[in-house]
C-alpha cells in the first residue's frame, strides 16, 4: 500500500502522548526488561520461521496439527490471545485453514484482499489475523490493537480520511479489514518517527508506555509470556468474535454488553450466531459516525434487544 497521508505525521507530531512516547522510547529500549522481551520475541519468530521452512509450507501449503500447535504457542509470546486454539483449524477444516494461511503469506493478491479473505475464517478476528502477519514478517506488518488508538486518541477525521483513500484504491473490503489497514498506515508513520527496526517494537513500546500512565489494576494487556503463563492464560483482552456486526436490511438482535464482560458474553453470542441469527453490536458503528445516534438507530430497527 502506497498512500500519500502526510497528515498522519502532522497529527502524531502534535500529539502530546506521542511526544512523551518518543522520550519514553529512548529510556525503555535500554532497560533490561525490554531487552529480555525483545530477545524472547526474536527467538519465537525464528522458531516459527524454522517450522514453516521444515514443513516446506511455501511449496506444500500444508502444516500438520502439531506444527500449528507449536506456532500458536510461540505466537502467544508476542501477545496474549485466547483465539489461538485448535478451534481455528477444527471449525474451518485443516486444509481450508492451511490454504488461507498460505494465501495470506504467499498469495499474489495485494495485502488488503489477502487479509480480507483470511479474516473470513471462523475464530479469526482483526487482531488475530494481524498477529499471524507480524510473526511472519515484522518488518512489513504490525499487530493491530485498539490500545494504540486509546493512547494516541486518534481523531475520527484522521481515521475517516485514511479510510476514504483506502476504499478509493481497494473495493469490497470488510469493516474489520478497513480497520486493520487504517492502523497499518498509522503504524508506518510511527515506525518512521520513532526510528524503529520493526513493527513489533512499536507494540512493545506502546504497551510498556501504557503501564506508566494507567493504574496497575486497570491494565488489560501484557506481552511476552512464559510457558507457564501461556498454559494458564485467562486474559481476555484479545478475545474476538469471528464475525462482524450485521449490517444488512433483515431482522437482527441488538446486543449490549460491557467490554470487561466479553469473556462471558462472546461465547454466548457465538452460540446464538451459530443458530443462524443476525447480531448487531458496537463493532457495527461505521467510522466517523456519531455513536449515540448510531446506537439509537440500531436499537429502533432491531427485532430483539439483549443486554
UniProtKB/TrEMBL annotation:
According to the record, the signal peptide region is none
Q: What is the lineage of its organism?
A: unclassified sequences, metagenomes, ecological metagenomes
Mind telling me which SUPFAM superfamilies this protein's record contains?
A: Toll/Interleukin receptor TIR domain (SSF52200)
* Organism of this sequence: marine sediment metagenome
Tell me the Gene Ontology biological-process terms attached to this UniProt entry.
signal transduction
**Ranges for the TIR domain?**
253-307
Name the record gives this protein? TIR domain-containing protein
Amino acid at each position: 500500500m502506497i498512500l500519500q497521508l502526510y497528515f498522519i505525521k502532522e497529527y502524531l507530531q502534535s500529539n502530546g502522548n506521542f511526544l512523551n512516547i518518543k522520550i519514553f522510547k529512548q529510556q525503555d529500549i535500554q532497560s533490561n526488561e525490554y531487552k529480555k522481551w525483545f530477545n524472547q520475541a526474536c527467538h519465537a519468530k525464528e522458531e516459527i520461521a524454522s517450522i514453516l521452512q521444515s514443513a516446506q509450507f511455501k511449496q506444500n501449503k500444508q502444516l500438520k496439527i502439531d506444527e500449528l500447535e507449536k506456532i500458536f504457542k510461540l505466537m502467544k509470546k508476542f501477545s496474549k490471545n485466547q483465539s489461538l486454539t485448535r478451534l481455528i483449524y477444527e471449525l474451518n477444516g485443516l486444509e481450508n485453514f492451511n490454504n488461507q494461511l498460505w494465501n495470506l503469506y504467499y498469495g499474489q493478491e495485494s495485502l488488503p484482499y489477502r487479509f480480507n479473505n483470511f479474516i473470513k475464517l471462523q475464530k479469526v478476528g482483526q487482531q488475530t489475523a494481524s498477529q499471524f502477519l507480524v510473526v511472519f514478517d515484522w518488518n512489513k506488518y504490525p499487530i493491530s490493537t485498539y490500545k494504540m488508538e486509546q493512547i494516541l486518541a486518534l481523531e475520527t477525521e484522521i481515521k475517516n480520511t485514511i479510510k476514504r483513500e483506502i476504499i478509493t484504491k481497494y473495493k469490497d473490503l470488510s469493516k474489520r479489514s478497513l480497520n486493520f489497514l487504517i492502523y497499518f498506515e498509522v503504524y508506518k508513520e510511527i515506525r518512521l518517527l520513532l526510528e524503529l527496526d520493526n513493527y513489533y517494537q512499536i507494540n512493545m513500546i506502546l504497551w510498556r508506555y501504557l503501564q506508566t500512565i494507567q493504574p496497575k489494576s486497570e491494565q488489560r494487556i501484557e506481552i511476552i509470556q512464559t510457558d507457564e503463563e501461556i498454559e494458564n492464560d485467562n486474559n481476555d483482552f484479545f478475545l474476538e468474535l469471528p464475525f462482524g456486526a450485521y449490517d444488512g436490511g433483515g431482522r437482527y438482535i441488538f446486543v449490549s454488553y460491557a467490554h470487561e464482560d466479553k469473556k462471558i458474553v462472546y461465547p454466548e453470542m457465538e452460540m446464538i450466531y451459530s443458530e443462524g441469527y443476525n447480531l448487531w453490536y458496537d463493532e457495527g458503528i461505521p467510522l466517523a459516525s456519531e455513536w449515540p445516534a448510531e446506537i439509537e438507530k440500531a436499537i429502533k430497527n432491531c427485532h430483539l434487544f439483549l443486554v
